[in-house]
Amino acid sequence: GSLSFTFDDPEKLNQEARTKAIANAKEKADALSNVLDVKLIRIINFTESSYVPPIPYYSERSLGMGGGETATPDIQTGQNEVSSNVTIVYEIQ
């Protein structure tokens, strides 16, 4: 069998990741507009993708001579990550 660890509220984490990604994209757009000496007028396109992968847990079972023994599960530590990628296209002047 296998076991997966997940988040209690993945939608809330997706929203937080999206908000941070949008803020990061806006910060980069503002910096670029200053360097290029242009003005950001309005957003003309927005796309987003987010991903919350489960971390699988795999166990190995062994049978002893009596047929009833199983190995103690070895639970590995790890991390779950939520990511959000946004692309924002601005009209510039």
Automatic annotation (TrEMBL):
Pfam families according to UniProt: SIMPL
Gene Ontology biological process terms from the UniProt entry: DNA damage response
Protein name according to UniProt: SIMPL domain-containing protein
Source organism of the structure: Candidatus Portnoybacteria bacterium CG_4_10_14_0_8_um_filter_40_50
Lineage: Bacteria, Candidatus Portnoyibacteriota
